[in-house]
Amino acid sequence: MDYRLIPKTGQKVSTVGVGGTSLHSIDEDLGLRIVSRALESGVNMIDLTVESPNVFPVVRKALKGQRERALLGLHLGLTFLKDGQYKRTRDVSIVRRGFEKQLAELGTDYADFAYIHYVDELADVETIFSSGTFDLALKLKKEGRIRQLGFSSHKTEICRRLLATKEIDIFMFSVNPAYDLNPVANNPMNEDWSDQNNLRVIKDRSELYRQAESEGVPITVMKPFAAGRLLDERSSPFKRAMTVPQLVQYCLDRPAVVTCLAGLAAESDLNELLAYYDSTPAQRDYSIISRLTLEDLRGQCVYCNHCLPCPARIDIASVHKFLDLALAGDQMAKNHYLALKNQAGACQECGSCEDNCPFQVPVREKMKGALKLFGR
Ligand code: SF4
Ligand code: SF4
After folding, report:
1. Closest residue by Cα to residue 269 from 13, 19, 15
2. 155 CB less than 6 Å from ligand 1?
3. Residue 208, ligand 1, Cβ within 6 A
4. Ligand located closest to 306 CA
5. What is the tally of helices (H) and strands (E) in the chain?
6. pLDDT at 193 over 80
7. Nearest 5 degrees, angle CA 194-CA 200-CA 202?
8. Which atom of ligand 1 is nearest to the CA of 360?
9. Selected residue with higher pLDDT from 180 and 218
10. What predicted TM-score, i.e. pTM, was given to this entire model?
11. pLDDT tens digits for 143-169?
């Protein structure tokens, strides 16, 4: 097991961690075996972005008598309805109750990390401040219920806005080559590379990683495998499968990244994740992505939003991302999709996005797919 240090506290963080997202879908005994084996192997990062409250008792059992072995990441604003369905909220009294309930169900009185859950819109950032959610988070930290305060987001501008508060100790961000890469051509955000057909990491994203590193704010990675899509050539936008060691190494090579949180739904998933530590440099080598061209990605969305503007003000990249995640089995994707300001149902089928997309993605078809799947 390898560890990285949290700059401000010197805490040691395992470079891979358990993402709780898939644990609700398996029976309790299997979940317990997975979390217990992960802990025995030296994994100390356990994130609780969970879709069902039935995950908390499993983690509680795994931690019995050894709470100090784990660094638990809880989410402020992640709650559950009476029937157990996941719901994001900014109602400060529900946020507090939900957080306390999670602690109680885990049998602990503090969270090592607490992330303000899933902030992807600037309007939502304002709601976090105006609703008292941010003040609550600071208060919980002062009380010692939260050791380190963070947020989770998929958007660079949101990360920058929240980092500017100077109150953020850590943040969770979606990192993988599909989210990072972009065609050099037509992209003013990229540096002026001579080969206009190649793909490079989006400058805006690489700058965020460098900013986080220079400010000493570590990044915990969610979706390192894009919900498994990148591991399968049939679902990968690169039309070829990448491996767990390649994708873990890719994430760990980004500045500020301290850990990759992977959803685990089987013991084999844990085995594959831990096999990263036995892999050779050649097995971790992900340089194949530097040889990808626009042609390789034809028809595949890489979530770059070069297709905007959209007259219906649809965030096309996010619609595609949540559609792809849902099709890959991510249960939270639907909620995230429904939280978008404008959904696929608003599409006017004007086709301007398809003219702008460098990858010739059939956007209108995908909008119809999203409408059919999500109902809006
Ligand atoms: S449809 Fe094309 S331009 Fe739009 S986000 Fe996807 S890849 Fe980028
Ligand atoms: S086709 Fe739909 S998604 Fe594309 S730009 Fe027009 S309204 Fe927006």
Report:
1. 19
2. no
3. no
4. 1
5. 15, 14
6. no
7. 120
8. 2
9. 218
10. 0.83
11. 999 999 999 998 899 999 999 999 999
Atom of ligand 2 at shortest range from CA of 316: 3
Mean pLDDT of 341-364: 91
303 in ligand 1 pocket by Cβ < 6 Å? yes
What's the whole-number mean pLDDT along residues 258-264? 94
Please name the residue whose Cα sits nearest to atom 7 of ligand 1: 301
How far does residue 20's CA lie from ligand 1's centre (Å)? 29
- Ligand 1 centre and the CA of 118: distance in Å? 22
Q: Residue 268: its pLDDT value, please?
A: 92
Which two tokens mark 94?
């529900």
Total Cβ atoms within 10 A of residue 312: 17
Report the pLDDT value the prediction gives residue 80, as an integer from 0 to 100: 86
For residue 188, what are the CA distances in angstroms to 9, 146, 247, 360?
38, 40, 27, 19
pLDDT at 184: 52
Point out the ligand 1 atom lying closest to the alpha carbon of residue 356. 3
Q: Encoding tokens for residue 18?
A: 């358990």
Dist CA 290 CA 267 (whole Å) = 32
CATH code, 3-291: 3.20.20.100
Which residue would you say has higher pLDDT here, 47 or 52?
47
Q: What is the mean pLDDT of residues 76-83?
A: 88
**Residues facing residue 182 across a β-bridge:** 200
Domain boundaries, the chain: 3-291, 298-374
Å from CA of 303 to ligand 1 middle: 5
